[in-house]
Amino acid sequence: MTRSRDHGGNLDTARQRFGGAMAEWLDLSTGINPVSYPMPDLPARAWTALPTRDDMAALSAAAAACYGTRAEVVPLAGAQGAIQAVPYLDARGVARVLGPTYNEHAAALRGAGWTVQEVSAPEALAGADLAVVVNPNNPCGRRHAPDALRALAENVGCLVVDESFADPEPDLSLAPLLHRAVNVILLRSFGKFYGLAGLRLGFALCDGALAGRLREMAGPWPVSGPAIAAGRMALGDADWQAATCARLRRDAARLDAMAAAAGWQLIGGTPLFRSYHVADATAAQESLARARIWSRIFPWSATWIRLGLPGTEADWTRLEAALGG
User: Fold this and answer.
1) Residue 273: CA atoms inside 13 Å, Cβ hemisphere, count?
2) Residues of the chain with CATH 3.90.1150.10
3) Does the structural domain 44-236 have CATH classification 3.30.450.20?
4) Pairwise CA distance, residues 164 & 91, whole Å
5) Has domain 11-36+240-322 been given CATH number 3.90.1150.10?
6) What is the DSSP string of 126-152?
7) Global pTM exceeds 0.85
8) Among the four residues 33, 141, 219, 280, which has the most C-beta atoms within 10 Å?
9) Where in the chain is the domain with CATH 3.40.640.10?
């Protein structure tokens, strides 16, 4: 089934349809942490000099330590940078994507000439030249044990595991088991958990041959000096990470309770976003939009709606009022 290449974070669309200045809108259409990592004062060199190999190596080491992996770590312009590169790492063939899920995987593969099949069960991925699993999945939150993914890798040509939303659930990550996995590429987003999506930073974790090809495709300066400096600090801040994980879990439960009071049924999600079943997703989105709150609905479902987390008490109160609480 062909998926449209739509996304959350499209406030331009919301404003075109419903009016209002950008500052009036509360954007809950993404899964980006609304309480971002406090940006440190960055050294002047981060802004004025081209990143060096040592800079990149230090960032990779910080990511490897944070994710608990001995695999090679390739910094890229967001997880999206890896998604765009993966289709060109090997000869085109049959790619199977476990869905419904983030639509950029299938879109990038299809655009590069792959035959893309969306499947609904993990066992249906077996035999694919390339298989894609988002873990935890966006938007339903479906989860897969690391051991099950490692077993799956033995039955496909190449396995891509997108862990863009895995930071709050480190036990779910395949990263610690990835060393010398010759046909696995693990994607990590920086911007979602740390709330700094504008930095455009992410990572691909993989073995030496795949890592080498990705580095060659990315070029000498795939991420900016400010992203390197901020990324190194945030990835090493274990206290902030632990406190943020605890807060996200509390806030996800709070959002579920608020949605339940409005008659919405939980489908699933992650600590960074929640998906619900409603009678009419378009009507629910439009109702929130009239209160200048933007949500995420999907072209393939008339009843699914996804919300990110509000960031301030004022935002929580505003959402509760819009839901009729």
Assistant:
1) 30
2) 11-36+240-322
3) no
4) 26
5) yes
6) TT-SEEEEESS-TTT-----HHHHHHH
7) yes
8) 33
9) 44-236
- Residue 2 half-sphere exposure toward CB, CA atoms < 13 A: 3
Amino acid identity, position 84:
Q
| Tens of pLDDT, residue by residue, the chain (325 residues) | 444 567 787 899 999 999 999 999 999 999 999 999 999 899 999 999 999 999 999 999 999 999 999 999 999 999 999 999 999 999 999 999 999 999 999 999 999 999 999 999 999 999 999 999 999 999 999 999 999 999 999 999 999 999 999 999 999 999 999 988 899 999 999 999 999 999 999 999 998 899 999 999 999 999 999 999 999 999 999 999 999 999 999 999 999 999 999 999 999 999 999 999 999 999 999 999 999 999 999 999 999 999 999 999 999 999 999 998 5
10 Å Cβ neighbour count for 32? 24
Letter for the amino acid at 150? R
